[in-house]
Design brief:
With about 270 residues, the chain is mainly alpha-helical. It is built from 12 helices and 2 strands, in the order ααααββαααααααα. The chain has helices spanning about 5-20, 30-40, 45-55, 65-85, 100-105, 105-130, 135-150, 155-160, 170-195, 200-220, 235-255, 260-270, and strands at about 95, 95-100.
Amino acid sequence: MNFKSVFDNLKQTFEQYLFSLIKLPDVPSPLKESMQYALEGGGKRVRPVLFLYTYSLYKEIDETALLFASALEILHNYSLVHDDLPCMDNDDYRRGRLTVHKVFGEDIATLCGDALLNFAFEKAGQALALSTNKENAIKCFNEFATLAGASGMIGGQIVDISPNKTLSMQTLDYIYKNKTGKLFCYSTKGATILAGKDEKDAEKLGYLIGFIFQLTDDLLDDDNAFSILKVITRKEAECILESKKQEAISLAGEIDNKGFLTQFIQAITERKH
């Protein structure tokens, strides 16, 4: 399998569909422009591509899958818009561009994030309505709602920004699992649920991929105040990364005999940014 070709084809299919959703004729300016700016920001689209590929292992990609994948990417981008706000991480740049609050102002960026969160649920709701298997789609929708909420991404973000938190492996593991891991977990578990298959291994793989992704980020960013490198040495972190990588690769091989998931794991650990 040519990993890059498969990835790029899935990304192109996804982006064509996503961009068709964000014309937003009924949304007033400048909110519409801020939402489009956030969603057209040139992200790698690793989460929706992972969702669509996992789904394709069992069923042909259809509009229901594309809608759930879109909801996932929209949710991810809402979290980035809010993460970048002055009251949160106060970042001026995202993916080599000015962040939404630097272009449109803090007030518009706040409302942009709110609108994207609701837009994500709108698309997930449309996927549920369109699905021919309502039982699977309801489970997929409920999984989506849980990952987005207080026991998922928002819970992870609360711990991440807490000024009183004690930086430890336990704290970092919670942040990894909830702020980063839940999105990757949904990419594999949600897609498997939607396809009507047993999600146990997919859930485990998703969390492993999320852990690997965030740990690689920490190793690439020495300036991150909440990096794992503030708790353990780089050598120790690299050993953990290698161990988790091999565990994930072993599980990926059981799920996908074509090799894409294995190469996906290798690609996220070998990236330079």
